[in-house]
Amino acid sequence: MIQEQKIVVAARALMALIFIVAGIRKLLAWGASVGYFTKLGIPLPELLLALTIAFEIVGGIALVIGWQTRYVAIALAFFTMVSAFIAHAFWAAEPPQFNGQLLNFLKNAAMAGGFLLFYATAKSQPHHWLRRKTEPAIASTAAHAHH
Description:
Radius of gyration: 18 Å
Number of domains: 1
Mean pLDDT: 88
Structural class: mainly alpha
Number of helices: 6
Order of helices and strands: HHHHHH
Low-confidence stretches: 133-147
Helix content: over 70%
């Protein structure tokens, strides 16, 4: 059971990494990111960029620590598919960009599938290592008895 928990934490961290890195990179390249959002036709690009950065970083961190995993996972699945349709429209891409856009679209779809799996299987609780040390052992034992 503990080994499975470690695998789940690793899986969440790997899924979250792309969002945390993307959010930080967008923040560090603010001007270029606003330009990219504008090129994509996203309305209010500065506002939506700020919201996107916050969502990617906070959502990624929440996923890593296991905070409200079900809600975070479904939000990230939705965000990932919306991003796929907006930023990776392979059907409208020029021939030189077609393969890259198709693969990025499919990558987003695969990630959304992983998030749906987290949604279906998560208990929306932080793992035991995030609980305060002062919690009584009985509460921890009772929580495990309901699995």
